[in-house]
Amino acid sequence: GVDSFFSYSMSGGMEGYERKARPYKTQLFQTLFDSLVRDRVKGSDESNDLPVVLEVGMGTFPNAPYYAQAMKESALKGLDIISVDPNDTMFNYAKDTAEKSGLFSSSPNTSLRNVHGVAEALPFADGSIDAIVGTLTLCSVTNQEQALSEIRRVLKPRTGKFLFWEHVLSEDDTVLALQQKILSPIQTLVADGCHLNRRTGVNIQNAGFLGGVEIEYMNLGGSIIDGSDVISPTVFGIATA
To answer: Which of 78, 82, 153, 161 is deepest in the core (most CB within 10 A)?
Structure first.
């Protein structure tokens, strides 16, 4: 069906984008994992004391190599990784990506499981998650304000971290911003609900993260030829609950 076709397309269609994003995302994930180490209770070897990392809209798990690299560079003994995605057919691709990235071989205590759901109604208890990862996810949620409220709700108070990486409406190129606004209705139809005209960085800053929001804006670089210019404006960072 449509979900299966979209899963297949996504599994091989973002290589060029990820190449450009790699140096920035590598550092971002390392920062997150270093914070997980600092926040853990020292001296616990119990598997159920492993940090719980929830990735919202994991898709085909293009972030798996960043997890694997950050695990190698950190003192973490493993992770309990949970995927939440409304498209369950993505998870088979996600598992394959995790295997190929070396995530499990480099960290035998790390597990990966899937929970069907959406960001606007996360099926987890208040304050139960150590970290949430969302990359190219908030562009396609139905209600961004509700999704951010849910992310704050399930994160552990004071220490819970939200790592985000999102394409946004251009802040420094009025012609590109107009192009994004014109193309956004078409994009939502052909790209699983993705919007090109959202000011996601502003919304994250206004979402009530009490520990603050570390955020950067940049143009990743894209081409008019392949259409990647419209997803070049990017915000990324880490918010603390």
So the answer is: 161
Residue scoring higher pLDDT (200 or 224): 200
The predicted-structure confidence for 114-150, as pLDDT tens digits, reads as follows 999 999 999 999 999 999 999 999 999 999 999 999 9
Closest CA to 11 of 121, 71, 100, 74: 100
Helices 90-101 and 2-12, axial angle in degrees (round to 10): 20
Phi, psi of 58 (to 5 degrees): -60, -35
Task: Determine how β-strand 80-85 pairs with β-strand 52-56.
Answer: parallel
pLDDT single digits (tens) 225-238: 566 789 999 999 99
Cα dihedral 227, 228, 230, 235, rounded to 10, equals: 170
Say if CB 76 and CB 36 are below 8 A apart. Answer: yes
Q: In the numeric block, which tokens belong to residue 241?
A: 């609950």
Name the residue with tokens 């993505």: 90
Q: Rounded to an integer, what distance in angstroms lies between the CA atom of residue 15 and that of residue 220?
A: 14
Strand partners, 236: 165, 216
How many residues are recorded in the chain?
241
The 8-class DSSP code of residue 47 comes to G
- Please check whether residue 159 is in contact with residue 130, taking contact to mean a CB–CB distance below 8 angstroms: yes
| Cα(186)–Cα(178) distance, integer angstroms | 14
Q: What are phi and psi of 161, to 5 degrees?
A: -120, 145
